[in-house]
What we know:
Shape: globular
Order of helices and strands: HHH
Number of strands: 0
Distance between the termini: 51 Å
Mean pLDDT: 80
Protein name: Cysteine-rich CWC family protein
Pfam families: Cys_rich_CWC
Helix content: 10-25%
Amino acid sequence: MPSLTFPDTAPDPSRCPLCGTPNQCAMETERVTGEPQPPCWCTQVQFPSAVLARVPASARAQACICRACASAQATNVTTLWL
């Protein structure tokens, strides 16, 4: 039986690479609109290594993880909101 192959596609930087929902990344919003944005929430948190390990290699450093996915795996959710 032949195996199916799919073309490599670039990840959508406005969507979470884990769940596909909008990631609300301020850096991507600024890139698209040209309007200055406040620092993105994701630049001020530490992501659990288990979450980062789930990001497909093709999406690493290309698309931000959303808050829901980041907090779902956190052992200490309060660290995500500091």
